Amino acid sequence: MVKMNDAPAAPGPTRTEPPYQVKDPEAFARNMARLAEEGGKVLAAIVEPHEREALGLRVPEEFGQASKTLGQVVEKWLSNPQAAFAAQTRLWTGYLGLWTDTLRRMSAGAPEPEPAPAGDKRFADEAWAENPMFDFLRRAYLLTSQWAEQVVEEVEGLEEHERHKARFYVKQFTSALSPSNFVLTNPELLRETLETNGENLVRGMRMMAEDVQAGSGQLKIRQTDPGNFEVGRNLAVTPGKVIFQNDLMQLIQYTPSTESVYRVPLVIVPPWINKFYILDLTPEKSFIKWAVDQGLTVFVVSWVNPDARLAAKSFEDYMRDGILKALDVAGEVTGEDKAHLIGYCVGGTLLSSTLGYMAATGDERAASTTLLATQVDFAHAGDLKVFADEEQITELESQMARAGYLEGGKMASAFNMLRANDLIWSYYVNNYLKGKPPSAFDLLYWNSDSTRMPAANHSFYLRNCYLSNKLSKGEMELGGIRIDLKKVKVPIYNLATREDHIAPPNSVFLGCNSFGGPVRFVLTGSGHIAGVVNPPSRNKYQYWVGGKPTGDLDTWFAKAKEHPGSWWPDWLAWILKQGGKAKVPARVPGAGSYEAIEDAPGSYVKVRA
Description:
609 residues; alpha/beta; Rossmann fold; 2 domains; 17 strands; disordered N terminus; acyltransferase activity; transferase; PHA/PHB_synthase; AB_hydrolase_1
């Protein structure tokens, strides 16, 4: 007979552990104390350089521009009370609908959660949709962001440049204020913090102190682990020799990998605002190595990382002592009177200007020219035009006059702001809030390896291209000669990348009409770097070719044919049609009229800003 007290207990309600709670209060408290200590180191790293140099803590110029621009928007918005009231009513109506939907979700029979916007990695964690509180925060943020962007479009009386700036700065502020950037409003960060008892924040604050020190008082967000890469060790390792150098550049000739080579050599002009090894990353990604392996004699300009001594070096100097001198040397070494030319980004802009100068002076050494993500018409130059008005350029010139150059970090910051969610805030969250070091990525190591820009050259470039668009108008002058790109009859292979934020594809497409000769326009997938650095072996992305690049990009694209994989083989077939397929015995660097100075990649590229 079973006694009553021996009977099994009736099942009670299952107790589940709350999803967000501190695991170990004592460990959490210790880590909060350590966090405060590391925070003090961050503050000291910010203050110390300014105290040492007797400088006051200065607010970055971008904040001043943003405040001024958005202040104008608010002033004009409030000057129309009826429109302002309608906009506020629209916002509050949106909030009311969101709150009503949230209450329904928290009750029985709640509707399915609204999915995150496609492609927005900030809200990928499932809790953003499944947890009503975080769902509310996410949707309220998106609602407010869209409302602010709409207000900018609706405000009357703004000049187009000011409206463009307002759009840009509104996106910067909304990106910064995303709930995904804060521990208490990001479910993934909150779980990480509670599960590790705050250890992630301690690690992150330690990394922040290191990055502020590396930035001499400014936060220089690391995008990759710099210890994994070294130029000349596992980056820029294609064999070659520096065979010439002057104040502005070293010229590298690469060692052939074939017994015979095509007669016409190739001269590559990279951007002077970055380092050339974007085209010679790891061997698997190296365009330079691939070109050498196809049987081309390859020369590459490696620009100097300039200091104050080169402050007066001009755009014309970069043309004469850079491109034209490289052509001189390549011609003497190979014995050829022509060369294929490649220009990348602003290197392509400089090369296009040089082609105009060559056309005016009867210089016919260009067998063909390839422009990679290059603008020559800056009418649709994208968000970088936000930084190019008379007031900002004048202020920048004043800064450059004091130093003799523009710090490379300034340009890198501007580029990062074009894709703030991907290139700033994702790393801020990963590094400093999750406390995780970024992964090793060669492309991002290159991206952080910035260079300085001489004052005279950079001022000329900003004023003649971004501010006045003189190159496309035929108003730019070099060496006393007016540059008219319509006189350039050289065949041109003009490559744009579909997701480019630096040289937008419609801007590159528009530039096709600036030249007087045949232009083959090619559009490739991905962005400014990945779309260009896309070796055939990886079989990634795609490219489109079509008819003559006339009209607008959308019309051209509608009729273009898509091809899978890399554009590199298409380019090779094209240049061989321009320069012929005749071959000669392979040329050994340093064996000709110019002796080897040092091994590639040379010493100029190793100078860090």
